[in-house]
Target: DUF3068 family protein
Amino acid sequence: MMTMRRSSLALIAAGVLLIALAGVLRFAVVPALTKLPGDTDTIAHYEGRATLLNSKALQSGDTANALMTDVPITVDRHIYVSSTTGDVAVLHDDAVINGPNGLKVDQTHTYALDRVTLGSAPAPAGTEVESHTGLTVSLALDPPADDSQRYWDSGTQTAVPLTYKGSDTVLGREVYRYEVSAQGPLKNPATLRTLPTALPKALVEQLLPLLPATQQDALRGGLPTLPDVVPLTYTSSNALNVAVDRKLGTPITATQRQQVVAGVEVGGQRVDLLPVSAFDIKTTEASAKASAERANSAANKLRLVADIVPLGSIALGLVLLVIGIVRRRPAARA
Model:
């Protein structure tokens, strides 16, 4: 009966274990790494210009100071996951808009996301989130180079096309560029709560000098038909251009133009009064560099665990198996 050397058995066992380790890494560890991490916590910074409504001045009749026009602003956007339940993450998207003279405007959103697709998911029991469809803060891994995805526009509360605009390289990372364009009635409840629902007709008349000539004519002709308290309606527009990492789907740079405009109905037609908010912002250079560095680090870690270590384990395991099999028979005794 043929016996095997103990060293050969050890080599064969080690080879089998290394090959099994490659399988564990590839099919158990890697899928976990491709999910939205439960410890996600990043801050992005933007800069630009804004037009902002001074509600107190407007309601007091101080139309000269009702708008802060073309003022410099910065935006600090904090994105973090507060909890995970299986493949569902509760994600917060909190932004602070910083303006002149200590002005601060907060915008907060909370979503339940599928940790793989980053689309909407059922909220965990007892958790309050915003209902939505489509993508919000990022694309998933390996985003498609096409127009198949949709983006959630919180202003109009609609999912709009995420239009593919080509590939590029930004700060050493290969990226895909996408565009978003959304327009419609303002439906964001949080924003609507901060805006006046109506204005006295006398105050609307005082706004006439602030309007373009065509709007002045339309409003002046309809003023006699307006009630003493004029209901306001609001429209929202959003133009977003974003460059996302081609592998990870995370944003590297973005430019955005958002506007909310107040209007009144005159003779069955809407007449715009004034913008109550308008933002024209872009990612700061420092923030873009930090995003690119995070993407580079995450991509290297994923490549190490998904490709380099499994392939190395398989190669070494096969070598050990071959050596163990070749040396399996003990040397003949003299």
